[in-house]
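Readers of this paper often ask what the protein records in our data store actually look like. An entry from our holdings is shown next, in its original layout:
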Amino acid sequence: MKSLLVGFTFAILSTQALAEGRHHATSPYAQEAARDIKSLSKTDVDELTRGGGWGFAKPAELNGYPGPSHVLEMKDRLGLTDDQLVKVQKAFDLMQFQASEEGKDFVEAERELDAAFRNRDITESELRELVATAEASRSRLRFVHLAAHLEVTRLLDAGQIAAYGEHRGYSK
């Protein structure tokens, strides 16, 4: 009986909202209109320009290829040797430097794309070029992160990789 009452109430409110023209009238993007770069939040920009992962390495991470940042965080639990620690740190430093540099390029490409629309003078050929530039940068950025997972995996033994997966919650 209670679920029938809840369903009935929802139906009435939904019908009322439709009648008043409020059903889905406000865009879910409305709060993003004030952003400097519409496609990126301040958090996104900060993550990208500092060389953070931004989720780019999920195919590696979720398929058993440990990431350098997390391996360094878990160095004691994984029992890294001194040699492994030096090599993982080197892989992390290189990844972060390259990702930070490319992240800045990606943010700038998104800024230029946003500005072209804001200025209302973009042509289809300019759009094609701006999108290609942004996506090429995004592709290079993703490669940097995925390649670091590949490199770090080569440095670990099977037991360390299994322990990594367990500590990260990927294996039961």
The chain has two domains: 1-34, 35-167. Confidence is low (pLDDT under 50) at residues 8-13. The two ends are 41 Å apart (CA to CA). The helical segments are 2-19, 42-49, 58-61, 68-73, 75-78, 82-118, 124-155, 158-167.
